[in-house]
Design a protein that fits this description.
The complex is a heterodimer of chains A (363) and B (366).
Chain A (H helix, E strand, L loop, with lengths): L1 E4 L5 H12 L8 H11 L12 E4 L5 E14 L2 E13 L8 H10 L5 E7 L1 H9 L3 E2 L6 E5 L2 H12 L4 H21 L13 E4 L2 H11 L5 E3 L3 H12 L6 E8 L5 E9 L4 E9 L4 H14 L4 E5 L5 H6 L3 E3 L4 E6 L2 H8 L3 E2 L14
Parallel strand pairs in A: 4-5, 9-16, 12-13
Antiparallel strand pairs in A: 1-2, 2-3, 3-4, 3-9, 5-15, 6-15, 7-13, 7-14, 8-10, 10-11, 11-12
Chain B lengths: L2 E3 L5 H12 L8 H13 L10 E4 L5 E14 L2 E13 L8 H10 L5 E7 L1 H9 L3 E2 L6 E5 L2 H12 L5 H19 L15 E4 L2 H10 L6 E3 L3 H12 L6 E8 L5 E9 L4 E9 L4 H14 L4 E5 L5 H6 L3 E3 L4 E5 L3 H8 L21
Parallel strand pairs in B: 4-5, 12-13
Antiparallel strand pairs in B: 1-2, 2-3, 3-4, 3-9, 5-15, 6-15, 7-13, 7-14, 8-10, 10-11, 11-12
Classes of the chains: A alpha+beta (363), B alpha+beta (366).
Chain lengths: 363, 366
């Protein structure tokens, strides 16, 4: 039994593992998952044909474990940093006693990267990574929540907790929730009141997005590097994930037409919108948030979730966001102390766009 | 020069400012307030006449502004540093159109201490201080809240939004429903705020034990406060006499082998929110110490606990159902030593409410 590089011929077995034991699906992986594996781990501008993903092979040559690795380019004070994002770690139940997961991670961290990173680990994955020398960096693990329709948001969670009776709970709660949300959106003392932003939104195109990333990363030591090909592919890939909703990309301008920021999030009417990235002029963070919240409310979203940059925690809090560390753990390992130091002091301009969160193979 | 050192004869005017314009009380200043100001600013173990609190006086010599100053000893990478804490910045409404606040803050910041810190600034004071070169340090501004009785806590927050006049009536009216909701919720295993019975044992925390704990459990940090028995004893005694916050409870937490693994200090308010002053101990047991605190507070009749969290412990607090905001007073810092600021930004400082001016609010003493 050994760990070896993942090759294209392994896709059916690896996709089956993913499908059955991570997604809890029935039977073999559907063709869409196979093609996603092909695209995600072999045919995209981030990988460029140089796959770093790994499989754990059983005695009979059967694939019993898999770790998807997607390389990312980053910069620390202008110097290139090679980052390997590991995700979708899955081990066949029969191989779980043979340290397969630990051996896969050990092989991953013996690779060519300056920084080994994960941004969506569950509790079990985090414990394993901690034992393998990874660190849970607090500054990368601050998730925010902003209810837009608080009563419906509460009912949404109550319905999820109710399991099979979810539909009934939602139906019964709807009239009362709608009334409460209507009142709370208008009361001056309500923390859930939404302010119409003085800024102007428009569709964010690829070129503008690239300019924004280059312009507004100033003041940070570490950031992700993109070119038109890689960003285009990434956004296209994300658009094709219907389980998260419709991807909405907005560039925000002031009255003079100057770009002051942007945001990208998934719209799911009547559900929670997941924010992928917010960036812009730090002085206008609160105005950007107002714009986002108003936009999301108009799209029918009941609450927003995202990950916040430590530096911007005060502004998010002032806009009535609440924080937790629930939403997938970001764990880091590097032989370069300056890289970890930049992450720990919140000096990295990183978002969900820059990790494995946005690379979900999906259903 | 309208800014000058605060002297004992200014106490009546300063307490008047504090009582009527910071606490917004309509009643006469209680006699105990003057004694409290004297103790806080002139006779406490850290009182330093070379670094006094400051007042701003108008043309007639009347005190129209005040900023309280304290000096604390801390260690930075094992070397002693002096830290000045500023707080209770008040300016009379008639003097707010001038530069009184900026001049008071400017004079306070001109001190020669290695680090100037405030941990309870309101939004207005934060704006003034930022303009004077102080930084809001995100890692020191993460406040946590942990509901213990969710229904009553929701009613408490709703009633606060409704304003002071109808708040008590709302609380009273909502009590039967919220109590019923809490009783039901306590039975659901899916309830994230369901109390967990702790295996640890609590005991009264003595000053000497707290000193030992502070030394033992500060390992791994680069910056920490320094205490001796006299200063810590005075501080705890001062905290105990602040009845506005509730009854001070100090608990040492031991494991089954009677080994001290942590402690917590908080104010008990029955039917209200308990403010946690300090929680510390072995990092491996943070979650268990929290469970012990929640169980203890629940038994004392507290509906929720609030506190400020060390960035390193945020994940453990989150795992135990805590929610975070930056609401609870702003912490700002200024230092000529960039390394000190880096340590603060990185969350590498062992700094709690006990160690700042939060614990030195005159409030209302018993």
């Amino acid at each position: 039994m050994s760990v070896r590089p993942f090759v294209e011929q392994d896709i059916p077995e690896a996709a089956d593992l993913y499908w059955r034991y991570l997604r809890k699906g029935e039977g073999s992986a559907p063709p869409s998952v196979l093609s996603t594996f092909q695209e995600l781990f072999f045919d995209n501008p981030l990988v460029k044909g140089d796959s770093s993903s790994l499989v754990f092979e059983g005695k009979n040559g059967k694939v019993l474990g898999f770790l998807g690795v997607v390389p990312r380019k980053m910069c620390l004070d202008g110097e290139p940093v090679r980052v390997g994002f590991g995700g979708n770690l899955v081990v066949h139940p029969e191989a779980r006693t043979s340290f397969a997961a630990a051996r896969i991670i050990s092989a991953f961290t013996a690779g060519k990267f300056d920084l080994y990173q994960s941004d969506s680990s569950n509790d079990m994955g985090r414990r394993l990574l901690d034992r393998m020398g990874f660190r849970t960096i607090p500054a990368l693990n601050i998730h925010w929540t902003r209810p837009l329709q608080p009563a419906r948001y509460a009912a949404y969670y109550a319905a999820r907790a109710a399991g099979s009776r979810a539909d009934m709970v939602s139906l019964l709660a709807k009239p009362l929730c709608s009334l409460f949300d209507m009142v709370s959106a208008k009361l001056p003392v309500s923390p859930f009141r939404l302010n119409k932003s003085p800024l102007h939104g428009a569709e964010l195109d690829l070129e503008t997005h690239l300019q924004c990333l280059a312009e507004f990363r100033r003041g940070y030591s570490l950031w992700a590097e993109y070119d038109a090909d890689s960003l285009k592919w990434l956004l296209n890939f994300m658009k094709r994930k219907p389980q998260r909703g419709t991807l909405r990309r907005i560039v925000v301008r002031d009255d003079g037409g100057n770009i002051v920021g942007w945001y990208i999030y998934y719209v799911k009417p009547g559900a929670v919108g997941e924010v992928v990235q917010i960036g812009g002029d730090p002085k206008l963070t609160k105005d950007l948030l107002d714009h986002l919240f108003y936009d999301a409310r108009e799209q029918g979203v009941i609450a927003l979730h995202g990950v916040v940059d430590l530096r911007r925690v005060p502004e998010f809090s002032e806009k009535n966001c609440v924080f937790t560390c629930r939403g997938g753990w970001a764990c880091s390992r590097s032989q370069k102390p300056e890289v970890l130091d930049a992450l720990e002091r919140g000096d990295a301009f990183l978002s969900r766009l820059d990790g494995e969160w946005c690379l979900l193979p999906g259903d | 020069m309208p800014v000058r050192p605060f002297v004992e004869t200014d106490i009546p005017q300063a307490t008047d400012l504090y009582w009527h314009h910071m606490r917004r009380k309509k009643t006469p200043v209680p006699p105990a307030m003057e004694a409290c100001f004297k103790e806080l600013y002139f006779t406490n173990p850290w009182a330093d006449r070379s670094f006094p609190s400051l007042v701003y006086v108008d043309r007639n010599g009347k005190v129209v502004g005040f900023v309280g100053a304290f000096v604390r000893n801390m260690s930075f990478c094992g070397k002693p540093i002096s830290v000045s804490l500023g707080g209770n910045l008040i300016v009379h409404p008639e003097a707010r159109s001038g530069l009184a606040a900026a001049r008071l803050v400017g004079a306070f910041l001109s001190g020669k201490q290695d680090l100037q810190l405030t941990d309870s600034a309101n939004d207005r004071a934060r704006n003034v201080e930022e303009r004077m070169g102080c930084y809001t340090i995100p890692a020191l501004n993460i406040h946590w809240a942990r509901p213990l009785r969710l229904g009553q806590y929701a009613a408490y927050n709703l009633s606060r939004l409704a304003g002071r006049a109808i708040s008590p009536w709302l609380m009273l009216g909502a009590k039967p429903l919220s109590s019923f909701a809490d009783a039901m919720a306590a039975k659901f295993s899916a309830n994230p705020f369901r109390p967990v019975k702790s295996r640890l044992q609590g005991a009264e925390l003595e000053v000497e034990t707290l000193l030992q704990c502070m030394i033992e459990f500060r390992k791994g940090y680069s910056l920490w406060p320094e205490y001796d028995a006299a200063s810590l004893g005075w501080l705890l005694s001062f905290l105990e006499r602040r009845c506005a916050h509730g009854e001070l409870r100090k608990v040492l937490v031991r494991d089954e082998d009677q080994k001290a693994i942590g402690w917590y200090i908080y104010y008990v308010v029955r039917g209200g929110v308990g403010e946690v002053v300090q929680l510390g101990g072995d990092q491996k047991f943070t979650k268990e110490i929290l469970e012990h605190l929640f169980q203890d507070a629940l038994e004392q009749g507290v509906i929720a606990v609030h506190g400020a969290v060390d960035l390193r412990h945020m994940a453990d607090f989150s795992d135990k159902g805590c929610l975070f905001t930056c609401r609870g007073g702003w912490t700002l810092a200024k230092s000529k030593n960039e390394q000190i600021l880096t340590v603060l930004r990185r969350g590498d400082a062992l700094f709690s409410r006990l160690d700042g001016e939060w614990s030195l609010d005159p409030g209302i003493l018993s």
